[in-house]
Amino acid sequence: MDVIEKGETVKKRIAAACKRSGRNPQEVQLLAVSKNHSADDILQLNKSGWTDFGENYVQELAKKHEELPQSISWYMIGHLQRNKVKYIADYVKMIQSVDTVKLLHTIEKEAKKHNRQIPVLIEVNVGEEESKFGVRPTLEVCMELADECLKLPHVKLRGLMTSAPYFEDPEETRPIFRKLRELRDEMNKQNSQLKLDVLSMGMTHDFEIAIEEGATCVRVGTAIFGPRDYANRQY
Ligand SMILES: *Cc1c(COP(=O)(O)O)cnc(C)c1O
Comparing C-alpha atoms, which of 69, 98, 226 is closest to residue 156? Predict the structure, then answer.
């Protein structure tokens, strides 16, 4: 199967998960996670109507942005160093991996230079894994970042993002996704100015469970592009 066929299969699975949980498929954005995959594969998808792509590394994102059609929307989903924000601030559609106040301030500064507002998500390490980035999953920590966002005119906080721990049985990720949704709901209750509507959760292994638990954005790489071959890096 080529990327188009695999992409269509993912869309069908999303539609089925929505149907099972009484949700409208229009509410669920599919981000094609293209890290370590070729510009050709991205272009092929883009030509058949795909516009939203997620990348993890600034250098790779910037190079692909340069090479590929300007109509593509690029989402930063990987750990972001403050000194690299300037390379993507001009065009990035959303930064989903915010986990410190300092990073927020850098995004504010760089967005201001380009006279734009950058939508962001707070990355939450719900599973509290050593190996993962993201803030601790407490209301207090998330509200500290959210309150800061409200003071920054060039940053727009839209919601929360998480990557679940790997479980052989994806059903075991359900409490993780549920926790992210509850955290988002509590934040909206705590401060009615927030109006957080985005929950970015679910990847190849677990996106259907995430949709059942309220995901509004799923980030799917392997199921669309195949396995990533890091020995064959192009970027
Ligand atoms: C790589 C990556 C994905 C996609 O993972 P797959 O398992 O290939 O679908 C999603 N989100 C983040 C943050 C990633 O780094």
Answer: 98
Is 174 a domain residue?
yes
Q: What is this structure's pTM?
A: 0.97
Q: What value does the mean pLDDT take over residues 59-76? A: 97
pLDDT of residue 230: 81
Task: Name the β-bridge partners of 5.
Answer: none
Hey, how many other C-beta atoms are within 10 angstroms of the C-beta on 110? 21
Distance 220 CA to ligand 1 centre (A): 6
Identify the residues whose C-beta falls under 6 Å from ligand 1: 33, 35, 56, 77-78, 163, 203-205, 219-222
For the chain, the domain total comes to 1
Q: Which domain holds residue 176?
A: 3-227
Q: Taking every pair of C-alpha atoms in the chain, what is the biggest distance, in angstroms? A: 48
Residue 106 has pLDDT above 90, yes or no: yes
pLDDT at 124: 98
Is residue 177 pLDDT above 90, yes or no?
Answer: yes
pLDDT of residue 234 exceeding 90, the answer is no
Tell whether 151 is covered by a domain. Answer: yes
- Domain-embedded: residue 111: yes
pLDDT exceeds cutoff 90 at 162: yes
The answer to whether position 235 is within a domain reads: no
> At 204, which CATH number?
3.20.20.10
- The answer to whether the Cα torsion of 27, 33, 38, 41 is positive or negative is negative
